[in-house]
Amino acid sequence: MTDPGNAGVLLGAFAGEAFQIDGGTVMPAADTGQESARRTVSRAMWVGLWVWPAFSALDAYMCFVAYPNARFPLFILYRVLVEAVFVVVYRATRQRTADVKRLIFWTNITFGIAAIAISLMAIELGGIRSPYMHGTSIVALVRAALVPEPWRRSLKTYGRIGLAFPMVMTFGALLSPEYRAEWITAESLVVFASNYVFVIASSLLGMISGHVAWSAQEQLHAARRVGRYRLQAPIGKGGMGEVWLAWDDSLRRNIALKILRAAMTPNPDVVSRFEREAQAAGQLRGLHVVRIFDFGASDDGLYYIAMEYLSGMDLGRLVEDFGPLPEARAVRVVRQACEALEEAHAAGIIHRDLKPHNLFMTRVGDDPDFVKLLDFGVARLRDASAVGETLTWTGIVVGTPSYIAPELLQGAPADERSDIYALGATLYFLLTGVTPSRPNAVGRTGARQSDAAIHRYDQAMTETLREILNRCLDPSPGHRFQSTRELSEALALVNDAAWTREDAEEFWRSVDRQRFGSVTAPGAGERLGWKAVS
Fold it and tell me: Which pLDDT band, with edges at 50, 70 and 90, does 482 fall under?
């Protein structure tokens, strides 16, 4: 089950390819089982919401046709009360912060209450002879179909369901001489036993089938391995590969595993680019670059990159969800990106796909606004001849159109200044929520497009920042900043210190209140439960 309103985008690209994250929520390995259990009980309650009232039609038939003396309003009351329990528990299962063990407990109690309610209805429909006892069999089988569980864990639940009918009848016998007489009549006991054996069989069948389904899931889960990595949950999927949350058995930690299925990729350049991404990012050790732990290939044709697992959200989604950033915050973010790019450029690596979705905000130490540079899938070496090849497909411009420097559209090679153009366009987006416009599709260099585009922005923007943006977005590479260090020094004059750690903590607390209606510790819920990786 997913929440469409929380859909996020993962741009951990295979040669610039975008991946969609369903639900926008990826839990760490320690929480994956908890989240899966929450979804399971939520689904069970959802089905119960519809199945339980649907049997009201059978109630009407039994009360008005088979047993005319039965009190139909009492049946309606039972249906309404149990339906209310289903609603309450279902709403609780939709809260991602709810305790899963407690949810499972109340789910089991709800099925038990449904069995008891059916047994109470049976009092009106023949007592211990009532065919309505088979309704408890339906309760057991529905639960087995919806909640796979090991038999030891489900024994109490199916025991409660199976024993609900005789317990209710026994209690009725203690209160009513009429019902007590039924228990000492041989004919009544024979009818009861003939029907009740199917109730017991259904409870046993439910427990066994639930265990079999659970065991099959466990075997499938154990089989999902790539090398030493155990796959936990899919994060994203594209035409050529997948990204998984995985567990590193050797180092005992969560990682993000990017997988390329070479057998499904006829273009050998794609495999080369995949390998190049691992090599390029693996050279970098700065704190603001996503870390690469491992690269390899399995015997069955799977190439993989094991990388740092990050909790948080990319800057594209941050702006899309909460609007443009304050000037000081945007400057602080971009200066961190400058630090990452400075290291990459010093190593001769040009990113070529810099954009808000490839800058990821996470928490590191006590800094809740720490930025990581992602996705070197279309990166190139500044001196391509050193490796005997280029990293650009012939006749194809790689990257994201809104952030591609004009000279690249005209066929010029990428260098540090084209990354600086993309970084300026990113800053532009962070401040305004829109991407910079172009005079035309080919990036005509005869006009200063940046002047015209920035002119319509918030007039409160400082003149210093406006000049920086104009220079970053200048269509002529020679007029831009020539290095990220130079850009960072210029941004320092805007005074990014005006955005403090306390400001960032208060922002995330306010979002926490908005989403959950409560405030927990700073950085609660690992950035409010939203997870993503590169």
Answer: very high
